[in-house]
Amino acid sequence: MSFNRFKQNINRLQQKALVKMGTTEKTVDVDFDKSLEKYNKTKHCYETMYKEVLNVKETLVAFLEASKRLSNEIADFYDNPKAKMRLPALKYQTSVTKLAEETIQLFDERTKDLTVNPLLENMIVFNDLNPKIKNRNNALVDYDRSNRKVTSLTNKKNSDPLKLSKAQNELKKRKKRYEKLNKDTKAQLDSFYLNRFKPVDSPTAVFLSTYGGFMLEIGKHSNELMKVIPKVDSSNWISATSLISDRKTGTTTNTTTKSPLKKKKKKKRKESSSSSSSSSESEEEKEKKKKKKKHHKKK
């Protein structure tokens, strides 16, 4: 970096610091700021879509791989042909394997070639616009600094006419450069914003159609699987601990476990019955005491 470039950067930092402290004013272009806000919002959407498409792709691939491992374990567990869940386990294994083979490669290729890569290519435009925005902002800082310098020399008593003339000429150059960059950059930002949908329409359509086809395939395999799954009665659930042999008797217990809700209901019934019985006993004792008092008074 040359000394002049270094000095220029120092002057810009000084000017920005003065603006933050409120000791000098900053030139504000409301229309440009609105265009810049729209650009930043669109840029954020582009970057987020690219990131989340990758996340969805990786998540679905991981989901199918995990489902394959799970289906293999379930099928290996139900190794007895007479087991109640043998057929559903095999059906689940077949469905997941077929779904993974048909979908993973297709989904991976389509999203990569027709969605992820186009989105990445579209984001190259930011590499062109971002430096232009930076140059425009630097030109604004330089213009404000020159304007502050001219104002200071003008208000100063016995200021050097040569310095003032030089500062005024520099201000004219800074102003001209800033106004040109401001106008050109704003036009490019507005053009990009107005045409922001076109570059993303095709990648988005491909991704949604691919995702929709994937969900349809899952639905087909799920419907086939549901046909062979027996109805589940939660009241007949058997705990694995009840299948363990008793060490003393050597027998196995195969009893259904009672749900904790039923136990709670029974406890509540016992408590209510005990409270009602105790309340009835207390009432009887009160009546007996009243009778004794009356009998005593009569005597």
UniProtKB/TrEMBL annotation:
Subcellular location: Cytoplasm
SMART domains recorded: BAR (SM00721)
Keywords tagged on the record: Cytoplasm
Domain BAR stretches: 17-238
Annotated spans, Disordered: 248-299
Record has Cell inner membrane as a keyword: no
Keyword Cell inner membrane: no
Signal peptide start-end: none
PROSITE patterns per the UniProt record, alphabetical: BAR
Pfam families: BAR
Ranges annotated as biased composition (Basic residues): 260-270, 288-299
Domain of life (superkingdom): Eukaryota
Name this protein carries in UniProt: Bridging integrator 3
